[in-house]
Amino acid sequence: MLDWNDLRYFLAVARSGSTLAASTQLRASQSTVSRRITALEAQLGVQLFVRRPSGYELTPRGQSVLPAAESVEAAILNFSDGVAAESRRLAGTVRISTVESAVNAWVIPAIGLLRGQHPEIRVEILTSEHYVDLARGEADVAVRFGPRPTQESLVVRHLLDMLESFYATHEMVERLGMPASVEDLARYPLVASTDDTNITNRWIAQHLPDAEIAHRSSSMSSISAAVRSGLGAAILPCMMADGMPGLVRLLPPIEELTTPGWMVTTDTARRQPHIRAVIDLVVEQIQQTLARRPPHLAVAQAA
């Protein structure tokens, strides 16, 4: 079976008429070029070149096979170009799991940028307060908040430390007054989660046991909508609420509710170019958001 590299030597000598010129082109020694030509002739059982003091000249048989060798060269170059183009064209579906606040603050803006750069990548968002099993392929990437994931099969990097605080509308603050302490919040109607095991609900029960819970909702988006509608004050992620027109942060961030954020994936997933592109854009969006952040947000450089 012919070796493509032997055809490369054949074409270089045929075009240059010299093993010395061919050796320069191929970045090989002149003796290597001569040896490869001799080996090719022996394998084919025909003489391809006449060796003259002035150089190498194709024999009639060499002339007859030259077009075929050039066709093989063109096919291989086309194949190589096609592989390179395919590697540049990123396509596929990427599933991201995270909470609503992260979706709205970072993931959706990142997808908008992604569409312009890699239109054949599709992103599916799984919004949930519960963790999906990345190791089993339930998602490709997750942005999680809470304790650092410890599963050995996961690749984890610290993104930021997110704080939370109470927010209410300007109108409510004008009517009820700006609270000077947590205790002052007792005069505010509150919006809370329907899940009594939620960490913010537990904090409210501990620090504001007599507060009026004016409204409950099961999702962060509906809680923030209730606050914007004037139903009451609520604990919201600062990364989300600080950018909402019409809302006022009532107190400094609540230290006990500080939550580290993590980018989580698997080694197999992050090695896939289309998934890596999504990860990089989400991280970039987070970094840009943090660059514009008020001082209540701290960030750790993503690995």
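The above is record 1. Record 2 follows with the same two-line structure.
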Amino acid sequence: MRLLVLGAAAGGGYPQWNCLCETCRLFWERDERVRASSQSSVAVTADGEHWLLLNASPDLRQQIMHVDAMRPSQTTMAREGAKRSSPIASVLITNGDVDHTAGLLTLREKQNFELHATGGVHDIIAANPVFHVLDPNHVTKRKVGVGEPFKPVPGLTAELFSVPGKVPLYLETETVDVGEESEMTVGVKLTAHGKTLFYIPGCAHIPDSLKARIAEADALLFDGTIFVDEEMKNAGVGEKTGRRMGHMPISGEGGSLNAFDGAKIKQRVYIHINNTNPIWIDGSEEKKTVEAAGWQVAYDGMDLSL
């Protein structure tokens, strides 16, 4: 099983286009300790030809252009018998957030693929008429139930499971149930060739059931949105805490940094990293802290083979 990180950043990317927080300022000043990152998405394959896209980032076109494995190829063209071809055979959406669905509009160009999501997420997509550009003659929509294994591409088995989260920002009302476990925010278990990988880009907290589920994973890509809970306020760019946004902090009480201590997880990677998060900075105390605890920080182009 091979996984490519197409985008490691949270919504808005790094740097955010209109932000002068301390972390973004380093990029605008061309500081060599930081590198740009597009918005969160990964691609996985079990055979090297058919790829599953996990979340469709608004930056998807740019990501395809920058990653050779995602480009049209003679192999896929011959297989599909058409001038238009793509290694992307399936797309799986983990929630209805803009940074995970907007990239579907990039895939409207008469390309055959399957679109997998829970019924609730499919309902969100169907309710927005702009997504009607996805031609049903080419895009097969498949509703996937939580806990039901399926094969999105040859050789790869996927299973969705609920994680604590919330509805997308644009669907929030005056009362928001943050931390609910439902089909609106899911993690993904991927299995191929005897290896198991978990992808959880958004998680409000870690219940014991989640710890047990991933205790012996070969790899875990986990929500690294913010380093401290009040990061947005401290940076002067927002008032919401990380937990209010549906993302637990890395550090502090109840943080994710040491939440999996004792688990036999072979590789631990933080992904979906907000522009304010100082783990973007090579040599920062925050990045040193996560690395000392056995975590890696995802970056665009990161290549994991299991």
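Residues 2-301 form a domain with the Metallo-beta-lactamase; Chain A fold (CATH 3.60.15.10).
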